[in-house]
Amino acid sequence: MAQSQNSPLATPLADRHAALGARIVEFGGWLMPLQYTGIIEEHRAVRSRAGLFDLSHMGELFVEGPEAAAALAYALTTDPASLKVGRAHYSMICFPEGGVLDDLIVYRLGDERFMIVANASNAGAVSDALAARLAGFRVVLDDRSLATALVAIQGPRSAGTMAHLTDVSLDGLRYYAIAEGRVAGIPALLARTGYTGEDGFEVFCDVADAAAVWDALIETGTADGLIPVGLGARDTLRLEAGMPLYGNELGRDTTPFDAGLGRVVHLSKEGDFVGRAALEKARAEGPRKKLVGLVVRGRGIARHGYEVFAGDRRVGTVTSGTQSPTLGQPIAMAYVTLSEAEPGTIIDVDIRDHRVPAEVVPLPFYKRPA
Amino acid sequence: MVPQDLHYTKEHEWVRIEGDIATVGITEYAAEQLGDIVFVELPDLGRSVAQFAAVGVIESVKAVSDLFAPVGGEVIETNAELAEKPELLNSDPMGGGWMLRIKVADRAQVDRLLDPAAYEALTSEG
Question: Would you tell me which CATH number, out of the four given (2.60.40.3210, 2.40.50.100, 3.10.290.10, 3.30.1380.10), belongs to the domain B10-111?
Fold first, then answer.
């Protein structure tokens, strides 16, 4: 598993990133491209045209067997049995105490076959937890994280580019759907999912084929304005779209209800699941804090860990913040006490010992044009 | 090659000395490392600063960094254009992206700065 290695892992596209002059950082146990040409330029390409991402650091866990749906319903907060084959949903795996171990996408590939995509930094812990939770069910867990590459194309022109390269009918591939097919002649799983707030696709393939998929997407997409995009813009894109990041908005001391994601806790499903008792209690008691959007109205950027005040009273903590390339304003997400969570509320963020006013706003900051 | 008529710091500031006035900015290397710069905080005019003390803040999309005074003295001018156009730090860090001017209190402090060759060596270490 990635986490047990001492030196960071390289993705199968490392030589492509080097040739493109990417700045490389360590993230989740992997050497990943932070940026190629610049975060703002890459961000704007995804909002207006298309961007290409190497996400091969993500964990891919396959669960197969006659009791796969039931086993995952026990291990996760959602009910994967409710998914039709070829569909996906957002889910979480929680600790018995109700805190979040990771947020996941669950894809149903067949009646008895699922793929779970986990964050790179948690992939080992998710794999271990699933192995323990699935014991006793008639399923096989196959951690294919190191054998699977993930290349994503995101942005309004993604479908046009992808249509040239795949035999999968994109009209039939709705948001949060997945199909087996070919991309650039390579056998792949093609999903209409992403983490940017734009239309787009995620291509899962064997690591040996990653470069062929990447090169074909670059070659076909460049004429339409596609450029490679690193983790820096991935973070600003997801933040504008109001999407949580594990380690920032989600963690062991956060329940899905705190994060406003109670919809992924399917308490009505049959049978027990790990965390059920704690999560039922959490829902009954109501959240202690609320995840809100902030737009900084003074000068400065509210960043992860900065404290939030109402007068002299400490009322919360910033979880993520940046200068929004789309809005041209500093935006942030923060956990605040419920009394400070109403949109329109003005609170102060402590930015390097200065109290800077910020306004609570509804999430997301950005919604793509219909 | 970095400009040969300037002095440099280990923190990647450049300094142009003209008489007793030091013009200060960040190097191209620093600008490139920081990425897209979106916000700059500069000191008040008239403030007296010590050599190598933090005098300002540079925020890129990704991170926040301190600006250090390469020499001690009085802040006599700051680049007002940076408030509206912080991106000048990326596009022209050694020219239009200059950050502040300091009236040098003690010329001997200049000797503690890096010369172009030493700075060049620092940034080529990787």
Answer: 2.40.50.100
